[in-house]
Design goal:
The protein is of the alpha/beta class and about 300 residues long. The protein has 9 helices and 15 strands. It has a 9-stranded mixed β-sheet with strand order 1-8-7-6-9-10-11-15-13, with helices on both faces. Helix 3 packs across helix 8. The longest helix has 18 residues. About 45% of the residues are buried. The structure holds NADP nicotinamide-adenine-dinucleotide phosphate. NADP nicotinamide-adenine-dinucleotide phosphate binds next to helix 3, helix 6 and strand 12.
Length: about 300
């Protein structure tokens, strides 16, 4: 496993007109200031403020805006180069949460997030590794300085018979175990699994029991007995682009969606899932809960916080 510091690779700082304050492109929220969003702001750093073009370790440079519910949060995103993981990184950046990434290919991460840097988002540190190797996972969790862990890894079960066990179960168990070893420094673990994990007859299980193993991973997190909070997010079918209107996010408790008599599983945008994952870091109503999510066109949009309260 290898890693490299965002200070060298991803994070750029430039001298501000105000002595001791580093500013850069990273202060503008990507979303153009949607309600409830918090821009990144700089904070004073020591006298050795870098000159233009020099790089600054992210954790020493940026904090989320004062009063943000995400203030002080530092995320480590597993599966950051995947469809949902990439959206989680973007959403973290929009909310001012510095991110470290755990990826299989740092080259892929660099290509993927180069644009993010150009548009002003922030990536802190990249760890290259395989979630099925405990030593890779432990090293990232120990060295990232994160206090929130977001897990958006997943195998391609149709192509990889061992993937559901190795990635979806064992990989997540490794992350949980590494988090447990950090004591109080890890505060929250958010795990993306899937609608249908409670039902052994759900058709996706034909792919080498992928939902069966996701359910075992959920249980490992729930039973870890650690002091940190957890949130399990189970989406319906994932999409990158909406077919027509994206629909309003609908949240429900475990076992709301799936095979009859449950509601039809439906679909949801990966960006909507990312928003739920990141919101759950700040919404008390998401703590220690399993949340199923889809997007529906025939129902009114309700705030995520309000829906979480009802679960
Ligand atoms: N697709 C759906 O419709 C659907 C529906 C419900 C739930 N889900 C679940 O939701 C989650 C996110 O789905 P997605 O479609 O966004 O995922 P995805 O695009 O397939 O991304 C999966 C990520 O996991 C990484 N990964 C795979 N094996 C790994 C390993 N051994 N070590 C480290 N990283 C590894 C991949 O790395 P690379 O980038 O290097 O490939 C990728 O970044 C998954 O758990 C998925 O099963 C999917």
């Amino acid at each position: 496993m290898s890693c490299y510091r965002g200070g060298r690779v991803f994070c750029r700082g430039s001298r501000s007109a105000v002595p001791g304050v580093v500013t850069g492109k990273a202060r503008t929220p990507r979303d153009g200031g949607r309600a409830g969003r918090f821009p990144l702001v700089s904070r004073a750093v020591a006298d050795d403020t870098p000159s233009d073009g020099e790089v600054v370790p992210l954790a020493d440079t940026f904090v989320s805006a004062s009063g943000s519910p995400y203030e002080g949060k530092r995320a480590l995103v597993f599966g950051a180069t995947g469809g949902t993981g990439k959206e989680i990184v973007k959403e973290c950046n929009a909310q001012g949460i510095p991110c470290s990434l755990f990826v299989r290919s740092k080259q892929k991460a660099q290509e993927m997030f180069d644009a993010e840097i150009e548009t002003g988002a922030v990536v802190n540190e990249v760890f290259e590794g395989d979630v099925s190797k405990y030593e890779d996972v432990l090293r990232a969790v120990e060295n990232s300085g994160c206090n929130c862990i977001m897990v958006a890894t997943g195998c391609r079960p149709a192509l990889d018979p061992l993937g559901p066990f190795q990635v979806d179960y064992s990989g997540t168990a490794n992350i949980v175990s590494a988090a447990n070893r950090q004591g109080a420094s890890v505060e929250h673990v958010v795990l993306v699994t899937s609608i249908g994990v409670d039902d052994i007859f759900f058709p996706l299980n034909l792919f080498f029991g992928v939902l069966f193993w996701k359910k075992r991973a959920e249980e490992t997190l729930q039973r870890s007995g650690s002091n940190y909070k957890y949130t399990i997010v189970r989406p319906g079918g994932l999409q990158d682009e909406p077919k027509g209107s994206p629909g309003a996010v609908r949240l429900g408790p475990a076992d709301t969606y799936g095979l009859p008599p449950r509601k039809a599983p439906g679909s949801i945008l990966r960006s909507q899932v990312a928003e739920i994952c990141v919101s759950s870091l700040a919404e008390e109503a998401a703590f220690n809960k399993t949340i199923e999510c889809v997007a529906a066109n025939d129902e009114p949009a309700l705030p995520i916080a309000e829906q979480l309260e009802a679960i």
